Amino acid sequence: xxxxxxxxxxxxxxxxxxxxxxxxxxxxxxxxxxxxxxxxxxxxxxxxxxxxxxxxxxxxxxxxxxxxxxxxxxxxxxxxxxxxxxxxxxxxxxxxxxxxxxxxxxxxxxxxxxxxxxxxxxxxxxxxxxxxxxxxxxxxxxxxxxxxxxxxxxxxxxxxxxxxxxxxxxxxxxxxxxxxxxxxxxxxxxxxxxxxxxxxxxxxxxxxxxxxxxxxxxxxxxxxxxxxxxxxxxxxxxxxxxxxxxxxxxxxxxxxxxxxxxxxxxxxxxxxxxxxxxxxxxxxxxxxxxxxxxxxxxxxxxxxxxxxxxxxxxxxxxxxxxxxxxxxxxxxx
Length: 333
Fold this sequence. Notes:
By secondary structure, the protein is mostly beta strands. The protein has strands at residues 17-26, 32-40, 47-54, 60-66, 71-77, 84-91, 98-105, 111-121, 124-131, 137-143, 146-152, 165-169, 175-180, 194-198, 204-205, 211-213, 218-228, 231-241, 261-265, 268-272, 281-287, 292-298, 303-305, 312-320, 323-332.
């Protein structure tokens, strides 16, 4: 409190370099982050930019050198030891000038991502960086003779997610394939976004491009939510399905309420329930292309041999006097 120097650490590449301090960040632990920029005395175009972390005693913990040779003007520490976000400039290797730059380091000083904006110009850099109170950042700086104010999300991006998808009904009736056509979500990137599908029938998925099979025929509202940082975008579409009964196979008369059940076993299936009519039950089995592969009259409880049917999806229709008592999709393995 009396102005005396308590500790001193010299940061320099040596006497052949011009060194200048950029910014420093004091953590609650006592650790200090320091950004520096140095240029060689005999070759001013040879520039080094570093971010160094020291403990409270001045011991170097890590040293990150900017590959661009630009420089960092300001730094923000992220909560929960997630790392640091840096803002400054990045030198162009093609023309004279710098880009606006924002980047992220993890808690150990390793780069996570780096973004650059605009075309390289003289006197172009970010000067101040602050949190927006959520998970994004505001940065202010210079763009040659103009002032720049930018608002970034947690990935250092200016764009917000845009959810979109298309869908196609598959050969297996009632089953739809969904193609995710969203933009600005970057699910494969570090800090990237994610998706949530709601198929409108109580089912959901977090897959990128899911498939889904609907049960009863009806109208369903499908929604895709794209989430990046604290930004969300929702896209919806309507599906009208014919249910799990395949298109192209003649529909049976509306199924009455019955207590019948189809049991599928290894090489057989049979119908369980109370046979209320004296006449036999007509069984038709279709393959997924709508071809009849078996047609016979059966009794309740009778075992039907399916060993000659290849593995796959089939559709069974049981009826008495053209009145359906049961329609069901089965899978033979």
